[in-house]
Design brief:
Layout lengths: L13 H149 L3 H50 L1 H8 E5 L4 H7 L4 H10 L2 E3 L6 E5 L3 H17 L4 H30 L6 H10 L3 E2 L2 E2 H19 L3 H10 L14 H11 L4 H9 L9 H15 L8 H16 L4 E7 L4 E6 L6 H18 L7 E5 L10
Parallel strand pairs: 7-8
Antiparallel strand pairs: 1-3, 2-3, 4-5, 6-7
Length: about 525
């Protein structure tokens, strides 16, 4: 520690100079002691604060640790509870599954027991039937021997009475038989000539009606035109364009006729090609929405719409083939199937008709024990020629058969497409199946031009005619009008009268109604005895 030395330039008295160092020394010592005490006090206060903070930190840590332990315990218990609930849930599901399996097994055991009982009963019935057949065979053999003896005796008796030899009697019998056969032959020829005449009249009538149907105004309007809505009649002028350049450009690019008349809010697109008409309809709708109508824009929109329609055609064809179960058909056939979506026949969509014929053909083939998939393929592709009949000469059966043969379809499929309208001699059973399914699909209620009111009226006519006969209590037309169930009174009629009522109802239908196919009439007569035990 340094002691400051002060030098005074002015001399002082000696007595004053001797007291100065002592005071300085005391002052220094006091300063050192007080500094040391202050430092100790400061250290103690710091240590006390540190100890207090340490205690607080430790206490806080202990409290936090306790909270964490409690949270961990809660979380562990929650997870244990979740695991327990999940385990119980799985156990309940397993128990339910085991109960369900046990119920199914019991049900199967009951069914097997019933089948065994039925088989035993059937065996007993078969044994009884075989025994009766053996007895009848023996009885027939005995009677046959007796008849042979009687015939021999009758021949001898006839020879004795007539005085004719066997050869003369045979010659006379053959002569009489020839005369009788000639008369029957003449009757058969007349009958067949009459039937042929009726058939020719029916065919000519069908051809005439078909021609009238194709060229009737209402039908043509439905199948060859489409309408496009416009926001206002001002849009008609924009569609026509200056000096008609827009409408001429649109018609030349799309190949359709655009009819703009006085009908408010509508423009008509007309064409016999359904694909072109659909492209033109969508293109015109897009142009009206876009608002920019000029030749270059028309061409751009039409090209885009054609590409979109082609993609849609391919997609529809793939969906139809997949629906029937043939996803790997030739790409061109898929395209033709998609085009059938835009084709109608007597207002019936040809693609949906083809899919329906495919399923019906498969069901018929399955019932007959034939190849179900081959029958489905024949039914699906039987009208494929309608997708290209506007591009080639000939009817759709021949066009379809040529296309299917070109793309490697089986012989039965080609024959079904060619002969399903009986234009050629049928050589495959699958062709007959497809023809039957085609007729069923075309004649079912609602498939073609038959409104709901007309369908209901026809059903009511069947029931009304049947209820007019005496003894009929109730009549129900079922199976879309192809079958009639009649209930007659057991008190007012007998079994013979019920049979006569059934025949009379059939004659009344034939005379008073016009209907496709056949109508099956079933007359039921029964006696019910009801008593109540109390």
């Amino acid at each position: 520690m340094s002691i400051p030395v002060y030098i005074d330039l002015f001399p002082m008295p000696l007595a004053d100079m001797t007291g100065l160092p002592l005071v300085s020394l005391v002052t220094a010592l006091v300063a050192v002691v007080s500094t040391s005490l202050f430092i100790r006090w400061l250290d103690k206060s710091r240590l006390a604060d540190a100890a207090t903070k340490a205690r607080e930190i430790r206490q806080s840590a202990e409290e936090q640790a306790e909270r964490m332990i409690k949270d961990a315990d809660i979380e562990i218990k929650r997870r244990q509870l979740d695991v327990q609930m999940e385990t119980e849930k799985e156990i309940r599901a397993l128990r339910e599954e085991l109960h369900e399996r046990e119920r199914l097994l019991n049900k199967r055991d009951d069914a097997l027991t019933q089948q065994q009982e039925q088989l035993k009963k059937q065996e007993k019935v078969n044994e009884g039937t075989q025994r009766k057949l053996a007895e009848k065979i023996q009885e027939n053999s005995r009677r046959s021997a007796e008849l042979d003896k009687l015939v021999t005796m009758e021949r001898q008796t006839l020879h004795q009475i007539s005085g004719l030899s066997k050869e003369e009697a045979t010659r006379r019998i053959l002569s009489d038989l020839e005369d009788s056969l000639q008369q029957e032959m003449g009757a058969l020829i007349s009958k067949h000539e009459k039937k042929m005449k009726e058939t020719c009249e029916d065919v000519s009538r069908e051809i005439l009606l078909s021609a009238l149907q194709r060229y009737s105004a209402a039908h043509t309007a439905e199948t060859t035109t489409s309408t496009v809505d416009i926001p206002s009649d001002e849009m008609k002028g924009r569609i026509i364009g200056r000096e008609g350049r827009n409408i001429r450009s649109f018609e030349s690019i799309t190949g359709v006729d655009v009819i703009i008349d006085d009908t408010p809010g509508v423009v008509i697109v007309s064409s016999f090609d359904t694909i072109r008409r659909e492209v033109a309809r969508q293109s015109l709708a897009k142009l009206i929405t876009d608002g920019r109508i000029h030749p270059s824009r028309i061409e751009e929109i039409v090209v885009q719409t054609q590409a979109q329609i082609e993609k849609n055609i391919q997609k529809i064809g793939e969906q139809a083939a997949l629906e029937v179960g043939f996803p790997n058909m030739h790409e061109r056939i898929i395209n033709l199937l998609g085009r059938l979506h835009y084709r109608t026949s007597y207002t019936q969509n040809v693609l949906r008709h083809s899919v329906e014929v495919a399923f019906l053909s498969g069901m018929i083939a399955e019932q007959l024990g034939l190849d179900e998939r081959l029958a489905k393929r024949c039914g699906l592709l039987h009208d494929i020629g309608k997708a290209a009949d506007h591009e080639a000469e000939g009817g759709h059966p021949k066009i379809g058969a040529d296309l299917l043969k070109r793309y490697g379809e089986p012989r039965e499929v080609v024959a079904a497409a060619l002969c399903h309208h009986d234009d050629f001699r049928v050589e495959s059973v699958y062709t007959s199946i497809v023809a039957a399914a085609d007729a069923a699909s075309a004649s079912r209620p609602g498939a073609r031009r038959e409104t709901l009111e007309r369908y209901i009226r026809r059903m009511e006519e069947l029931e009304t005619i049947a209820c007019k006969f005496k003894g009929v209590e109730q009549a129900y037309a079922i199976q879309a009008g192809r079958e009639l169930r009649v209930i007659v009174s057991s008190k007012e009629t007998t079994d013979e009268q019920a049979a006569k009522i059934c025949r009379d109802i059939v004659h009344a239908f034939e005379e008073q109604l016009s209907y496709p196919g056949e109508i099956k009439v079933t007359v039921t007569r029964e006696t019910r005895c009801i008593e109540i035990a109390k």
